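B., you asked whether I could sanity-check this one before it goes into the benchmark set. Here's the sequence:
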Amino acid sequence: MTEDKNKQLNRLLNAINKRNAVHYQIPNAGKFIFNKIVPYVFIYRVKDAEKRDKMLSDLAKTENASIVCRSDEFALEDWLKPIAQKLAEEFGACLLVEAWIADKDQTEDIQIHVGQKDILPLAEYFQKNMRKEAPEISISLAKDLHIPMPPDLPALYNQKELQNKQILLMGISIKQNYIDNNDLVLPIMMRLYRESLAKSLSRLFFEFLRVYTHLNATAQKINFHQVLTPLMSDIDGALSQESKKFDFLLMVTPLNTTDAWLQFKKDKFYKTPKFLYRPMHVDPDLVKRRLYNLRIEDIYDPTMAYIFRDKRAELDSMVTMLADRGKEDFVHGSLQVFGNVSEKLINSATAILMMTEDEDAKKRPDEIINAHDFAKLAREEVKFLQQQDPEFNCPIRVREDISGVMVNRGALNISTEYKLTKQRAKALIQHEIGTHVVTYFNGRQQPLNLFSLGVPGYEELQEGLAVLSEYIVGGLNNSRLRIIAARVLAVQHMLLGNSFSDCFFMLVDQFAFKHETAFQIVMRVYRGGGLTKDALYLKGIMELLTYLKDGNNVHLLMMGKIRKDYLSIIKDLLQKDILVPPKIIPRYLFPDYSEQWKTVKRKGNIFKLI
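And here's what the prediction gave me:
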């Protein structure tokens, strides 16, 4: 390769490294197109003196990344190998799909060629989708002994070069059935080939991203969700039905929190309290059998299939956690569902605790209200929100069998023992009703149940928004921030193997928490066997502040119980009128609080909220 070509190749590699789109024209030879830097490339090499096939050329234009070139003018393999290697290093794997015009003796309309065992599941997936997309086009799968390549052209790789590398190569040979004996194009047939191949390739690439790479598949824009099919609705309904059979948070929250606290205090805080839980009323094996009997693999739209698989995996992990309550394995499931704590999060939590002191100690006793008074305030907020839609509702229950305050499926549950200040009540109503209940109601207006029950991993964004709502209405004081920060350190302490009492004394001795407050923090983290969910409050608000500082729309977050990396999908579904805008807007998004939102966007940092 000449020095000039080396420079050009380095520019391409540098663009991949920086994730910059690149269009590179090779004079008299062809072009490299990366509309988006992705770990897959569609390749079409034109043979010497062969007329370029319009269908394959147009097909290449539909892909995010493609290479079209003349084989006699350009040694593609000299360029492709470093590019593919760079993509594999960046994303964990690289998929190359080369298409060519089939020989006259090929019997099938399309034949898929594979020479690597690792790519066989992808090839079978592509074949299955093509048969669904265009049943009139015959397609077969050939397991070659060599790396796929067009006839009369050099192979892009040899077998040895692809060993122990994360580069997969698949070939597709296509008969020109869309050209008649007089060399005239049959436009309807050509469109059938181009569109069915384009859609099947998009699903193939999406499946490759999901299974073979560490790239977030939901970030890939695949425009097939024009309508919700009956199968999508059936699977959404089935996932919703399984989710409703158990209330995860209620099932992992102790029934005897008050008694456990009194006993813990009696034992001088040195004996780990015994918590009692609701009986397990679902059979995990039966739930899992029903979940994995769902035909998600038959869903036409790869994005929707990804969302449903994601939810199924979450429900699988949650029901496993319920079966493991009180056992060591419970915490492993929690790490899968709710995640770990990063060093950055721990440092931020520690800094907040070091910079602040408890403000609640300065409150006067006459500001304290009980559970029934709080319920009354909550009902007034529901009436206020019903002015936007009379159908909005939120059952409010004062109960003896829970701790603190909890929303489940649009209902607000309050412990009979719960007490708080009036100012804290104002903030908590926006947290629980303004965020959790409103997003549940708005989610129920969507055609998919997932948006009311919660897409997988929605808790981080949801809790971040709920905590920020407290700040907007003037209720996020330093005492509340300290509790949110302390939860992060308690999760870290628990994951390091420390006992309940050790964690309790860490909060009391190092950060001056009152005994009962420290107990409540530690109980929430150690319940069930170790729940990492409480670290999401601080993580969520920090992520949300960055989201707002970047100029993103907060109203979009009211669509339902969603997570940040689903927003691109949600915007797309909104544009197609599949989803509807939120019906209810919480009080904290009313114009009365516009100045507070401007302040939040300007500050953009958790420490500036202190």
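One thing to flag: The chain has 22 helices and 13 strands. Otherwise nothing jumped out at me.
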